[in-house]
């Protein structure tokens, strides 16, 4: 058994870890639970992603796969992700990412600003999460929950699956409970 070691990797695979995709139109109306709508939005050319893992990191050049194990934390300009294990599969041409799969105590946090410039935070939790840049979808499985501000959607069964995309749409398959809090001022039109 190997002794856990701290590993800090600074990856400049900006196109590989979080691929550029269409950004959400500022005037577009979205659901109160549009968490992670900005995931995959346009990124600065020099954006960097930092991945830390305290047990191991494995790279398989032939398979275009990188795996990180043990208290994995991904810090990206668009989000922060923590999990027990992360597997990233790059496209064959290594011009982007095919899929990222996070498992074990997955927490995704995205900081955004609303149309009035006020900061808000979206948090997704699940036993596993899969991100597919080509579709812009994040799929949460295993007691998934999504919180955006005071609005919440929580699975009421382990088998519930929540899918969110960068356009602000979401789909829940299975039992869940949704709480939407009206934060508008009384009497405001």
Descriptors:
single chain; 189 residues; lipopolysaccharide transport protein A fold; 1 helix; 50% strand; disordered N terminus
Can you summarize this structure?
The protein has a domain at 7-21 and 33-135: Sandwich (lipopolysaccharide transport protein A fold), CATH 2.60.450.10.
Descriptive account of the structure:
- The protein is mainly beta.
- It has a domain of 118 residues: Sandwich (lipopolysaccharide transport protein A fold), CATH 2.60.450.
- It has one helix and 13 strands; from the N terminus they run βαββββββββββββ.
- Strands 1, 2, 3, 4, 5, 6, 7, 8, 9, 10, 11, 12 and 13 form a 13-stranded antiparallel β-sheet that branches.
- The protein is globular, with a radius of gyration of 17 Å.
- 30% of the residues are buried.
Number of strands: 13
CATH class of the domain at 7-21 and 33-135: Mainly Beta
The CATH level-2 architecture of the domain at 7-21 and 33-135 is identified as Sandwich
Shape: globular
Overall helicity: under 10%
Which residues sit in consecutive blocks of at least 5 with pLDDT less than 50?
1-35
CATH superfamily of the domain at 7-21 and 33-135: Lipopolysaccharide (LPS) transport protein A like domain
Distance between the amino and carboxyl termini: 64 Å
Major sheet details: 13 strands, antiparallel
């Amino acid at each position: 058994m190997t002794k856990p070691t701290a590993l800090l990797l600074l990856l400049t695979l900006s196109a590989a870890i979080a691929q550029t995709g269409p950004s959400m139109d500022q005037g577009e109306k979205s659901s109160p639970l549009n968490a992670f709508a900005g995931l995959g939005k346009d990124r600065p050319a020099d954006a960097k992603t930092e991945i830390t893992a305290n047990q191991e990191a494995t790279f398989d050049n032939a398979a275009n796969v990188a795996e990180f194990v043990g208290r994995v934390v991904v810090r990206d300009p668009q989000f922060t992700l923590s999990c027990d294990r992360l597997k990233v599969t790059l496209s064959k041409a290594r011009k982007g990412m095919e899929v990222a799969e996070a498992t074990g105590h997955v927490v995704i946090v995205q900081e955004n600003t609303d149309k009035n410039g006020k900061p808000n935070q979206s948090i997704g939790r699940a036993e596993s999460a899969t991100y597919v840049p080509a579709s812009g979808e994040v799929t949460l499985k295993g007691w998934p929950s999504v919180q955006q501000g005071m609005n919440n959607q929580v699975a009421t069964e382990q088998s519930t699956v929540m899918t969110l995309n960068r356009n602000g749409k979401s789909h829940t398959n299975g039992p869940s409970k949704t709480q939407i809090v009206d934060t508008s001022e009384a009497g405001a039109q």
